[in-house]
Design a protein that fits this description.
6 helices, mainly alpha
Amino acid sequence: MPERQTPENCTCGATLVEKSRFCHMCGRPVFEDAAPEVTEMARPVMPPQPSPVRSGPPPVGFSNPIALRVAVLMSLGTMFVEMIPVVNLLFAVWGVAGGWCAVLLYRRFTGFALGIRAGARLGSITGILTFVSLLVISTLTLTVGGQSQDIFKQFRADPQMAQVLNDPPTLVAVFVFALVIMFAIVVGTCAAGGALGAKYVSRSSGNTPV
């Protein structure tokens, strides 16, 4: 850095001594150094964070854990009611009630109101699980409880039923047809209850159904 020359006079008029840094009269600095430049480091600009968007629950189906849990609970309740003598005569009513309550329970767990189609799907899942539960319980009751022999005796007392029992292909066809009818009734009533329950919930809550 080149050496700076001392001016002859200070601003106060006094003659300055060579290489002096301050005036001996007023004390003013001979050389006024420039103020150091302060470089402000550029702050990194953060990209704007997207606002969190509340996503709805997954579609109603067997892959939806909440829907599956609700369907299992309501299928067990519907199965127990339909196993009670005399009360089971209103099986269609209990199927509708099972689908309806499944939609209400789903809304309680998730806070979302289901649409009519989604409610019908939830009701149909409840009906499928109810049918499977009834089929398993009925099979265990007939085999373990020994009631199958009494039923076969009653069937053999009827000539037409005895003819069906002696014809295995016809017996299988009748059995499959009875299962299909039972499946359609149970699943259909539960699906109808789910659709009605979804329609009621969407009206009462005022929320947009999913």
